[in-house]
Amino acid sequence: MSGNVEARLAELGLTLPPVVPPVAAYQPAVRSGVYVYTAGQLPMVDGKLPLTGKVGDEVTAEQAKDLARTCALNALAAVKSVAGDLDRVARVVKVVGFVASATDFTGQPGVINGASELLGEVLGDKGVHARSAVGVAVLPLDAPVEVEIQVELTEA
Hints:
Elements (H helix, E strand, L loop, with lengths): L3 H8 L17 E4 L2 E4 L22 H23 L5 E12 L7 H16 L6 E7 L8 E9 L3
Parallel strand pairs: 3-4
Antiparallel strand pairs: 1-2, 2-5, 3-5
Helix pairs in contact: 2-3
């Protein structure tokens, strides 16, 4: 049954997507004790990437920030797939964001703010987290951005 978190998503005009199937040999999310670790989530929408290429070349920083929001939404779907209910999220512990960057692009933190801001909008204080924003040469499928999250769950 959907609870407060999914009601908040609806208030924001968002819908939790189906879990993005893995593109290689891994699981979208794994639970270990009270923690859920997601695999890197690409900004897949209906099974495809809306944009490809390097941020600062083919993709603008603002477009990439929107894609990072999509990555975070996909990460929440992955968390729900193993936690059963997003209302069990006690807090987001860590976010790691990767930005496929043009050689002169240095705005990785602003891009990954898309994911961080979405988590805050959806989870409130529980969405406040530690974070890394890393520029890389290329990501799978030529995605502009990839985000992984670690969350702590409440005891069941």
